Amino acid sequence: MQRSSHPTTIEPVFGYSIVPQGRRQPLFWGRAAWGLSSIAFLVGYLCFFADRGHCQTTDTLPNSSDSTLTTKQANFDGKDMLASRTQQANTKPLEFRTVSFRGKIVWLNEALKERYGISTVPEAAQRSLAILTDDGSLLPILDDSRGRSFRTDQRLREMQVELFVRQYSGQPMLQIIRVYELRESQKYEVDYWCDVCAIIMFETGLCACCQDDNRLRKRLVEK
Predict the structure, then answer these.
(1) CA dihedral sign of residues 126, 129, 131, 132
(2) What is the CB-side half-sphere exposure of residue 44 using CA atoms within 13 A?
(3) Average pLDDT of the chain?
(4) Is 98 within 8 Å of 163 (Cβ atoms)?
(5) What is the pLDDT of residues 81-111, one digit of tens each?
(6) Which of 47, 106, 168, 187 is least surrounded by Cβ atoms within 10 Å, i.e. has the fewest?
(7) Phi, then psi, of 132 in degrees rounded to 5
């Protein structure tokens, strides 16, 4: 029986093509690889045009509804920007000048009662401090760490002092920068000192480093 010169291909079975010569071709895996590459290409294509579409929607107005939304958003952004600028203007640092006052530190409630006959509630006693200047002015002291030192250390309230302060525009409180004692025609800079750690502090108490007691220090200011 004479065989044909052309090989006859039998239909694929389980992903393989059977030929008379007995050779098998892995069509299943080839098709799977082609399918995966097609899916990857399609995903990349969709992502690319999705990004372009996002840019177009933010830069252009395709219809009237988008135009209305963008206008509302612009109005909201404008109001937000105006509110932010208003807040910045309100939080602008106050202007101040540096000036010196001479006098004695007193309790504000006692000075008001003694000098002006103004009575305060009992809980206001020994709460706020002021400097009674040599010319009779009564100026309140800001109660920060330097101001609080006069409340916690009676020795400071017994001194005739010169305060180097910041005086802010629009409010009466004085912020103390430096404290000087005036005694026997001399001026001494006053602070607190730790002999162990060599640290300057602004109020009496324990050293922030070694926890030992600090001491009141007075240094002569050369003229």
Answers:
(1) negative
(2) 6
(3) 77
(4) no
(5) 656 666 665 566 778 899 999 999 999 999 9
(6) 47
(7) -95, 105
Return d(Cα 184, Cα 145) in angstroms, integer.
28
pLDDT in tens, 108-136: 999 999 999 999 999 888 889 999 999 99
Round to whole Å and give the CA distance between 68 and 61.
Answer: 9
Give the percent of the chain with pLDDT over 90. Answer: 50
DSSP 52-64: HHHHHHHH---SH
pLDDT at 42: 72
CB 108 within 8 A of CB 128: yes
Contacts 24+ apart (CB under 8 A), 152-158: 152/203, 152/204, 152/205, 153/203, 153/204, 153/216, 155/216, 156/105, 156/190, 157/104, 157/105, 157/106
Tokens of residue 167, six digits: 């005086």
Write down the pTM of the prediction: 0.58
C-beta separation of 129 from 150 below 8 A: yes
List CB contacts of 174: < 8 A, sequence separation 6 or more: 101, 131, 139, 140, 141, 142, 163, 165, 166, 167
Task: Locate the domains of the chain by residue range.
Answer: 28-90, 96-220
Q: Kindly list the distances between the CA atom of residue 64 and the CA atoms of 73, 76, 78, 199, in Å, as whole numbers in the listed order.
A: 14, 18, 21, 70
